[in-house]
Amino acid sequence: MPYTLWVFLCIIAYIGGLGLIIWITPKLLTRSFDEGLFMGIAAMDIIGALLAFGAIVVIFAVFNGALAIRILSFVLLVGILAVTGRQALTSFRPRILSGTVQLSRIIAGVYCVLLAVASIFYMVQMFLS
Q1: Handedness of CA 78, 26, 106, 39 (dihedral sign)
Q2: Which pLDDT score, from 0 to 100, does residue 57 have?
Q3: Residue 101: what are its φ and ψ, rounded to 5°?
Q4: Which UniProt key words apply to this protein (predicted)?
Q5: 36: enclosing H helix or E strand
């Protein structure tokens, strides 16, 4: 496949992954962690993260880590950091009147913080190697 098609498909997967994270994570907050629907929603959230990070990995691998691709990957990782950081802050914010479940908020918040930490880790690793 031509490289431009790979990049185009990866950008679509990246946008879709971030869209899933933005759209699905707030739905986790209103469900109890032991419901089956919480597990399904969490699985969709994980798929969103896989799409976002997978798109960056494929672009990085196809172009063999050229400098321009490292910069593009860095910008995409900053996007993941911004989205997951915002979702973590909204998850940890106390919501007394909205009917959220405290443990579900903690689980979703920790998940988003871990995604943000993974994004920072890959930013550092990309330029060290």
Answers
A1: negative
A2: 92
A3: -95, 130
A4: Membrane, Transmembrane, Transmembrane helix
A5: helix 36-62
Q: What is the pTM of this model?
A: 0.90
8 A C-beta contact, residue 84 and residue 119: yes
Single-letter code of the amino acid located at 100:
T
Residue 34, burial from CB neighbour count under 10 angstroms (0-12, 13-18, 19+): exposed
Q: How far apart are CA 45 and CA 27, in angstroms?
A: 10
Q: d(Cα 6, Cα 62) in Å, to the nearest integer?
A: 8
Q: What is the tally of structural domains in the chain?
A: 1
Residue 33's identity, in one-letter code, is F
Model confidence over 70-117: pLDDT tens digits? 999 999 999 999 999 999 998 888 766 567 788 888 999 999 999 999
Coil/strand/helix, residue 25: helix
Show the tokens assigned to 10. 């990866």
